[in-house]
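User: Here's a chain of 85 residues. Predict its fold as tokens.
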Amino acid sequence: MKLSPKALGLTLGILWGITLCAMTLLAVYTGYASHLVELMVGIYPYYEVTPLGSIAGLVWGFVDGLVGGLIIGWVYNLFAPGSAN
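Assistant: Prediction complete.
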């Protein structure tokens, strides 16, 4: 069985983008998970632990998840049973 790299990339992009945005807003308003979110500040440009920074986290999370999903789907299909490689 093969995977669709595009579908996997979009799925992971949407999930990671929403997760990063939600974690940021949770850290801003409650302080919960603030240490984890602070680690992400060093990874994504323009990302901050602010309400506006949550939008940057949403965008960067989507891009990061999309690229990661595309790569995972492509590599999986290289080794999937029944692939014609």
